[in-house]
Structures are given as C-alpha cells and as structure tokens.
Amino acid sequence: MPDIFNPYNTITTPRDARELAAMLLHPERERPAVVVSTTKNGPVINPKALADRLGNDVDVYLINSASLAYDFSDAMPLETSVYGGAARCYPPGTAWVKNPFKSMLRLAYTEEEGQAAIVRIVDDVAAMESLVPLKVTSTSPRKQPSTATVDGIVSVILEPDGVLIKLEDGIARIDTSVLAPGISPDRLFSPSQKVTGTVRDGLFTITEGLNTPADAADHAARGTIQPALVLSSKTIALFPGLTVRHASEAKPGTVIAVRVEIPGRADGKAWKLITVTDPDEVTDALPFLAGGEPWIRWDTDASTVEVAPTVNEAPAEPDDVAPAPAATHQEAPVTDFTGGDAFAALDAVRARLEHLSAENERLSSDLEDLLVESVDEEAAIPVPSPALGGAEVGRLRAQVALMTRERVDMLKDHRRAMADADDLAAENARMAHTIERLRDDVRKERARADRARQMSRDIDDVADTAPLFNDPAEQFRHEVYLEWATRIPAGAKAETPLAEYGFADGFLTAAEEIQGVDRSKIVAVAMEVLTGLADSLPGRDMHRLRGGLPGTSSCVEDPELGTAWRVALQVKTASARRMHFWRGTDGKIVFATVGLHDDMSI
Predict the structure, then answer these.
(1) Cβ proximity of 62 and 9 under 8 Å
(2) How far is the C-alpha of 543 from the C-alpha of 536, rounded, in Å?
(3) Per-residue pLDDT tens over the stretch 502-531
(4) How confident is the model at residue 90, as a pLDDT?
(5) pLDDT digits (tens, 9 = 90+) for 36-89
(6) By the number of CB atoms within 10 A of the CB, which of 186, 217, 309, 549 ranks highest?
(7) Highest mean pLDDT pick, 67-76, 377-386, 392-401, 406-415
C-alpha cells in the first residue's frame, strides 16, 4: 500500500499483476485508477509526481518491469493494457471494457513528454467526474458479502445467459456472459452449489473462489493430457475464457483430450496441443469455482465424441482369403499435423502424396503381372486368377482401395493445411497493418507535439516583443486578467473575482514612463487591489490617503470617485514607488497615479 513517502502502489510479481487486473475489472470499483508502465531504463512518467498531483482520491500503480506488463496484458481485455513507458487511466466501474477509448492512454518517450503527460492525465481524471463521481455516496448501506445457493440454471430464456440463485430475501441472477462468454451455464454451476458475493440491483457478483484463465494456464503443464471443450472446427476451450486455436473434427460441444506439447499464455496464444484419441490418464480440469467439480470431464463426455476411422486400418478380409505375405516395401510415415507449422505440414503432405502415388503405381504393376501370369500356360507354378478365386488379386485390390482412401485423406489434410496457411498469412497481414498504423499514429503524435511546442514558442516570442492591443487601456486590462488567471487557483477563481475598475487621466502614461519599477509589478499590485488580496498583504502597506496639515487624520475624498487610497509598489528602498487609486461606495476602483513616496498628487 502507498505511504507518505511512496504515494503509489508498485507491482512486483506476476500475481500482483493478475490481482491488479482483477481489481480493475471488478464492477463495484468506485475509485479511478492510473497504471504506469516502465521501460528498461525506468518509468518515463514519474509515478510519485503523478500521485502527488492526483491526491488521495485516485489510486496510482507502477508496473515495475516489462515482463510484468505482459502478465498484466494477458489478464486484461483487448486494447486496455499498458506497457512501454505509457500510462492509462481506468474510470470507476467496467463501462470502459466495452469502450476502450474511455480508458485514456498517454504516451511519453522523453522526460519532457513525461511531464506533459502528467498534466494530461490529471485532466483525464478530472473529466471522469462527468461520468462517475470520484466519491460515490448512497442513501442505503452497502450490502456485505453473502452466501447464496444456485436455484436454477437458465441458458435459453435469459439473454445474456445467466444463473438464478436463491437468497434469504429473494432471488438474484449471475450474468455468465461476462464471466464465461460462449460457455453454457450448466458447465459452470450445479444445483445446490454455494456461491459467495454481493448483490446490487438484482445482479449477483461473485467475490470469492473464482478460478481465472491464468490459473488454468498454470494448471495445463507441459506433457499433461487435458480435457478440452470443442467450440468450432478450429478452436477449443481449456477453461472458460482460455480459448486456444486447435483443429478438431469433433462436433462443437463435445469434449476431447489433448496433450500439452508447449504451454502458452492465458489469452490462448503460443499453445501447441496434440489430440489424443485413447488417453491412458487425463488430468482433471480446474473447477470454475474453487472447491467444486471440474468444469468438464473426459470420462463423462468422451462418449459423445465422434472419432474418425483410422486411415491405416484395412477392411476385414473374408475367411476364405489367405493372409497376405509380408510387405517388402517401407510403410509411409504418418505425420501429425495438429498444432504444427503450416508450411512444414504442407511439405509433409506433399511427401505423403508422392509416396502414395508411387505405391499405387507399384501395386498396379503387380496386379498386371499377376493377370498375365494367370493366363500363361507355360508358368511353372500356376498363379491364382480372379476366375479361380483370386485371393491374391483380391488382397491387392483391397490394398489399392485402402491407398485410394489414404490419398483422399491426405488431400483433405492438404486442404486443411492450405486453409491454415491462408489464415496465418491473413493474420500476419493484419498484424503488419496494425503495426504500420501504430507507427504512423506515433509519427503523427510526435509531429503534432512538435507543432504545438513551436506554436507555444512563437506565442511566447510575440508576447515578449510586442503588445497585443493598440489601445493602452485594453493592453493593461489584458495583462491584469492574465495575472489573475495565472496566480488565482482554479478552485478559488469564483470566490476571488476582479472588481470593476477604470483609469484616471494620466495613469496609463505614468505606468508606462515611470522609472525604477517594472511594469509587471504595477500589473501584479493592480490585480491584488482588484481582488482584495492587497488588504491583507503586509508588503503592500495599503491605507487611506490622508491630506491637510501634518498630524491631522483627514482622508482625501471625492464626491464622485469615493475615498483615495495608497498602496506600496516597493518597500525599504530609496524613493519607494507608490500607486494611488479611488475606491467608490459601490466597490468600483479607479486607478489614479503611479509615483514616488512623497508624491501626493492624485
């Protein structure tokens, strides 16, 4: 937790990264959060300076390494993660999940851009107030976590899918379309099961015991055989939310067994799996809720799996056909293309087809030789012919039929491999397009920032070299307004407005020509007089202007302008400069003169 010396949270372990993602995705989160990533040289956006600017109403987190940023990205929805030195703001609640533009991302590559990003992040968080107040208040007390019982599973009537649960004081619903999209609720819960969570507006949110896709990814260790639910011909689910690309001929909704050759990430990428048709032992799947039953079982659902016939099995031979002699040729190797590289699969398929073609030609030649020998009356040993039973010819014909089926299967494999190759090429093209678009966006942002910096320098140069108004009165009013806008905080401007004011003849000329005091000091003191700050500043020595004989206390007054006042522009200096002004009964200020201490003219 942050303290007074370190007002932000630091993410140092993969578990911290997953817990941070779970906290951000909790629908009842009421505080805005800002997550800052780092580079190999440290964070570009200073998390301490950012936390100091945001105050205690916003949580600030620093992901302490690039590898932890990958763990955080695995646990977050698409386009909502942060890495590479950038920072992202997350509003309260979870509306930003469906609209990632609400979780504003700020990039920074240099220290100067990091300081500018802090200012923009503060503005982004302030803009969240129009969506959700920073401090959420309620007239009713917040319900504490309670335990409920699953009353019924509804997967058809409700949209989105959900589960009805029985509470002590009524019924609530769990929205399973958010917890496990695409998975039937009856695989997640069972009747009389206990769940713990909170209820708000009839929606039950589970707060304890949920296993995550990251937990399932850790559970699927290398070499283990895992049950998987077939979602389509190209995708399976190892766990709700953990969808892996894997080709399967089983129908969607059935359970297959796969061996984990290479374990991947929680977002379903970088996995290599191989289908196992007759496993000796299958590792139990994780339960959706800790302590419950596995969400799928191989021994329960395996009977529904349709297994394709093995291509190397020859049809049964009739009883009267003699067994074939041992083959003298080498069997073609059988290659498993599941989960492998598409181009390697294509090469293997081509090699397999070439072998089958050569084998088919060899068998055809053997058949022709047998037919010739069957009619050769001078053959030493008669060869059986089709007319005389033809056991050998029948066997060869069976082998030809078998090899023909193998060719058909290989052609199917070839088509699937070509389709996978097309998909990989399309995905590669999309990724290349996305990378180029992001690079173009970065170039545009940098160019926009350069233009903005150049415009700022041009404006500063113009402000330093020439007045912005031809009328001296308008120029003075403009400078007074800029002084007020710069010095008065935003929260205090409504309570500290500029009073109505004007200028007596000769004041603007005197302010321009007087020596020994800078014009900016005259503007600053004028703003303090107009806002009332000069009344309480000891260095201003503001008092009513007294006239008459020495020792008298009569004040200088005018029936139209009001009472004359004097305020110090300088103190403890020779010939200190003073500014005189009139203050009317209606509060209007009229600046009269700027002069030396002993100058009493007004």
Answers:
(1) yes
(2) 11
(3) 999 989 998 888 888 889 999 999 999 999
(4) 93
(5) 999 988 999 999 999 989 988 899 999 999 889 988 988 898 888 998 899 999
(6) 217
(7) 67-76
User: Buried b vs exposed e over 297-323: b needs ≥16 C-beta within 10 Å?
Assistant: ebeebbeebeeeeebeeeeeeeeeeee
CB-facing half-sphere around the CA of 39: CA atoms within 13 A = 14
Distances (CA, A) of 122 to 95, 116, 117, 199, 453: 20, 10, 9, 33, 20
Residue type, 241: G
pLDDT of residue 459: 67
More confident residue, 245 or 432: 245
Phi and psi (nearest 5°) for 60?
-115, 135
181 vs 232: CA distance, rounded Å? 14
CATH number of 472-596: 3.30.2310.20
Give the chain's mean pLDDT. Answer: 78
Q: Confirm whether pTM is higher than 0.70.
A: no
pLDDT tens readout for residues 145-163: 566 665 544 433 344 467 7
Cα separation, 253 vs 231, in Å, equals: 6
Contact in structure between 545 and 599 (CB atoms under 8 Å): no
Segments in 466-589 forming alpha helices (H): 472-487, 507-513, 519-531
Which of 124-128, 154-158, 484-488 has the highest mean predicted lDDT (pLDDT)? 484-488
Residue 231: exposure state from Cβ atoms within 10 A (0-12, 13-18, ≥19): middle
CATH architecture of the region 9-130: 3-Layer(aba) Sandwich (3.40)
The one-letter amino acid at 535 = D
At 318 the pLDDT is: 40
Cβ burial, residue 577 (10 Å; 0-12/13-18/19+):
buried
Consecutive H or E run containing 164: strand 162-167
Find out whether the peptide bond into 160 is cis, omega within 30 degrees of 0.
yes
Written as six digits, the tokens of 327 are 């083959």
In percent, the amount of the chain with pLDDT more than 70 equals 74
- How far apart (Å, rounded) are the C-alpha atoms in residues 143 and 127? 29
419 membership: H or E segment, kind and range: helix 391-465
Q: Which residue has the higher pLDDT, 289 or 360?
A: 289
d(CA 271, CA 245): 8
What does the alpha-carbon distance between residue 598 and residue 602 come to, in Å, rounded to a whole number?
Answer: 12
| Upper half-sphere CA count for residue 16 (Cβ side, 13 Å) | 15
Arithmetic mean of pLDDT, 92-97: 88
Length of the chain: 602
Provide the token pair at 23. 């906290």
Q: How far apart are CA 225 and CA 279, in angstroms?
A: 8
Closest CA to 524 of 541, 543, 506, 540: 540
**Max CA pair span of the chain:** 162
What residues are paired with 61 via a beta bridge? Answer: 9, 35
Q: List, in sequence order, every residue forming a beta bridge with 517; answer none if it has no partner.
A: none
